[in-house]
Amino acid sequence: QVQLAESGGGLVQAGGSLRLSCAASGRTFSGFAWFRQAPGKEREFVAAIRWSDGSTYSADSVKGRFTISRDNAKNTMYLQMNSLKAEDTSVYYCAGRISPMYSFRSAEAAYDYWGQGTQVTVSS
Question: How far apart are the first and last CA of the chain?
């Protein structure tokens, strides 16, 4: 059974930090991404990582503040979020891609499996 399990969400003050985790199981993925969805808004791309070499790509809105990384041994992906702002408040989703990730993908349709989401709330 394929599963992506997110954890690490919570309530934090503006300027604070959180680290989200996404534990993958059930099959091999070529890459992962984080997306987020705020109330009343469409889901948006945050960052992606290619599993083979660890190369990453991030949305302009989070560059310099968020870092995506992976731990091969644990088959887990992370999103370190620093300098959080109120506008970062969203449900954060982990997504996994099966097909080779020759280039970074920011579209939801590029990913085959999704986690259940974890809430991040930043108070101002």
Answer: 40
As a whole number of angstroms, the distance between CA 30 and CA 10 comes to 28
Locate 1 and state its tokens: 């059974």
30 three-class SS: coil
Is the Cβ–Cβ distance between 54 and 32 less than 8 Å? no
| CA 6 – CA 93 distance, rounded (Å) | 7
Q: Which residues of 101-120 are buried (b: 16+ CB within 10 A; e: fewer)?
A: beebbbeeebbebbbebbeb
For residue 107, give both structure tokens. Answer: 């579209």
**Does the pLDDT at position 104 exceed 90?**
no
Local confidence band at 113 (pLDDT 50, 70, 90 cut-offs): very high
**What's residue 44's pLDDT?**
97
Is pLDDT of 57 > 90?
yes
Q: Hey, what amino acid is at 18?
A: L
